[in-house]
From TrEMBL:
It comes from Pseudidiomarina maritima. This is D-serine deaminase, pyridoxal phosphate-dependent. Gene3D superfamilies: Alanine racemase, D-serine dehydratase-like domain. Pfam families: Ala_racemase_N (PF01168), D-ser_dehydrat (PF14031). One of its GO terms (molecular function) is D-serine ammonia-lyase activity. The keyword Cytoplasm does not apply. The keyword Lyase applies. The lineage of its organism: Bacteria, Pseudomonadati, Pseudomonadota, Gammaproteobacteria, Alteromonadales. Keywords: Lyase. Belongs to the DSD1 family. Residues 259-364 form the D-serine dehydratase-like domain.
Length: 378
């Protein structure tokens, strides 16, 4: 067992703990890697969704950032950030809020992948005299949204927007498929595939004399394994700041790089079944089972001792709303976990676990306590 920080023992559980030293190391690691490849990082701020975290990730307020909700865009704009990509396909009912941010002087880029969205944007722009800055979404791996990189629709949509006064700022893809990689070679390949897709896509636009300056790719796995980012202007990643068990299973990080855990207390035993009950159920851990399809299944999270040292094969195996059940592996007994013991649980998927909390308790690099509020809502 490692040294326990005294103030942590008195904190009311469950709560989400950020290890700031690990967080800072993770932030620095990717920043350096992407700079060394001659590219810029546009971090996705949706994992922690906290202005206090963003201040470390992007100390320069004019740096590009990615957001997943307009609530984030508004909060980061309030904090002084000026270049934000709202990386979820736009719907017409959100354009009033986008316009309000543009009128405040924020460069908020929106994303689309259909002519229907383009027409809605053009019509709104005409009605309200707004020029929107647009990214076209490209599908690099058949994972989610986006147009195939060789689709003639890319050029068609770009021309239609351009002729109607809109700005085609970039093309964007997200290699969500890299999460299913079985080997690091597959992640390298996924990274290459998204770069190829985005280069092909931009050519479809530039053949019509439209500049389209930004080529945006990224996910945490591909950002850590991309080898050739030529022509690519920016890389996005979000979960890299804290990592999680899915990233560990993919070989993107080590267990002791994971900067997020849920701190919980042992509240009971079922000695017959060799179960330990804790006060962190799905309300604290989330229901994410991202490691279920990977080579090591960590249930609802890997359990660590109160100092944060992982306990091999000890996982939260079942969750109710407020209760977590740790069915102990052979060789372990409930007596090793007296009632009142504090434990930490590493998350499967950091974004999902963080979303269950309204604020995070931060163990700073100097052992102090900080609290980072989370931006809530959409
Ligand atoms: C559009 C987009 N870009 C970047 C990311 C960041 O990827 P990761 O979660 O792997 O860090 C995401 C995550 O879902 C995303 O949706």
């Amino acid at each position: 067992m490692t040294d326990v920080v005294p103030w942590l023992e008195t904190e009311q559980t469950p709560f989400l703990l950020i290890d700031q030293q690990r967080f800072l190391t993770n932030v620095e690691r990717l920043q350096q890697r992407i700079s060394a490849l001659g590219c810029q990082l546009r971090p996705h701020l949706k994992t922690l969704r906290a202005v206090d975290a963003a201040r470390y990730i992007l100390p320069d307020l004019s740096s590009p950032a990615t957001v997943s909700t307009l609530a984030e865009a508004e909060a980061f704009a309030d904090a002084g950030y000026t270049d934000l990509l709202y990386a979820v396909g736009i719907s017409a009912n959100k354009l009033d809020r986008v316009r309000a941010l543009l009128e405040r002087g924020v460069q908020l880029h929106i994303l689309l992948d259909s002519l229907t969205q383009a027409e809605a944007v053009i019509s709104y722009g005409r009605q309200h005299d707004v020029v929107f800055s647009i990214f076209i979404e490209i599908d690099c791996d058949d994972h989610r949204g986006g147009l195939p990189p060789t689709s003639p629709l890319i050029g068609h949509i770009a021309q239609r927007l351009h002729r109607n006064g809109m700005t085609i700022t970039g093309v964007m893809s997200h290699s969500g498929g890299s999460y299913s990689a079985k080997t690091t070679a597959e992640i390298v390949q996924a990274a290459e595939q998204e770069c190829v897709a985005i280069r092909q896509a931009v050519a479809q636009i530039r053949q019509f004399g439209i500049a389209c300056p930004i080529l945006s790719v990224g996910s945490t796995p591909t950002a850590h394994f991309a080898e050739d980012l030529s022509q690519i202007t920016e890389v996005r990643a979000g979960v890299y700041t804290t990592f999680d068990l899915v990233m560990y299973n993919l070989g993107v990080c080590a267990l002791n790089d994971i900067a997020m855990s849920v701190v919980t207390t042992v509240i009971g035993h079922n000695a017959e079944k060799n179960w330990v009950l804790v006060d962190a159920g799905w309300m604290a851990l989330s229901r994410d089972r991202g490691t279920a399809s990977q080579h090591e299944d960590f249930g609802y999270g890997l359990v660590c001792d109160e100092g944060g040292v992982p306990l091999q094969h000890v996982c939260v195996t079942k969750v109710n709303q407020e209760h977590g059940v740790i069915a102990l592996p052979d060789g372990r007994t409930v007596q090793e976990f007296p009632i009142g013991t504090q434990l930490r649980v590493l998350p499967n998927h950091a974004c999902a676990t963080a979303a269950m909390h309204q604020h995070y308790v931060v163990l700073t690099a100097t052992g102090e306590r900080e609290v980072w509020p989370r931006i809530l809502g959409w």
